Amino acid sequence: MSDHRMAPVDARASAEPVPVRPVPAHEPPYYAVVFTSVRTDDDSGYGETAERMEDLVRGIPGFLGMDHARTPGGLSVTVGYFRDAAAIEQWRSDAEHRTAQKRGREQWYERYTVHVARVERSHDYEHANGYEDANSRVDGNGSRREPGDG
Amino acid sequence: MSDHRMAPVDARASAEPVPVRPVPAHEPPYYAVVFTSVRTDDDSGYGETAERMEDLVRGIPGFLGMDHARTPGGLSVTVGYFRDAAAIEQWRSDAEHRTAQKRGREQWYERYTVHVARVERSHDYEHANGYEDANSRVDGNGSRREPGDG
User: Fold this and answer.
1) CATH value of A26-120 in 3.40.50.720, 1.10.287.3510, 3.40.50.10490, 3.30.70.100
2) Which residues of B touch A33 (CB under 8 A)?
3) Which UniProt keywords apply (chains A, B) (predicted)?
4) What is the Rg, in whole angstroms, of the alpha carbon atoms belonging to chain A?
């Protein structure tokens, strides 16, 4: 387990520009909620709400981090990571989050898909180190998986 | 189960421009392989290899589709969906894929993380229809989850 796992999730407080980096692998099992969407042309109010939701979800105990990418004019993919199903349930049932979701369906999203998934294994790679840091699931036969999945 | 699930995965053969749409929810359980990466400045050969890998993975029995988004200058998120662990294993052990992964570590990726996760529930939303099409996991107590997760 390397030190970067202990880094604060919200890096915006830092005065230094922070390099983009994916949410690191955590010790399985944990959960990944994959949210893939195509937006409508109406983005009024979207930015403020997205920022507020990000603040809210970071306050959920068991929230591990969030990856987001958006191809201009194309698909948006957001993945939120949670320690367990209870953390997802708390986020799912948050009243302000539900209101935002409703507005999203009415106004911001042309279509979306949500996949709620339990992470069985994961690993990181850093070019500077030249090695993979694996959090591998121990298989039924006791042997660990090789890194390089995906 | 709606008809779009039967659409061919590879839409590039079509002469018509195809609207961007996320890979739809499938009947759980299935697998999502989340690959989050930050690229180096060296992208020589990347495009050809990425295209070749896409062709290859579409030939894997049990491959269900792939979502990809990349924020310019920022994070790239790719999610591949597979029917079962055996399909992932076949993709993972493909010789040409392994060669490409090795080159990726040496040349194209500053850092990346891979999360291999089993999807327990999922749902779609289409604004035009105004409803969510849920593939919900039946919980231990026999009740279905409400849509609106994530």
Assistant:
1) 3.30.70.100
2) 149-150
3) Monooxygenase, Oxidoreductase
4) 17
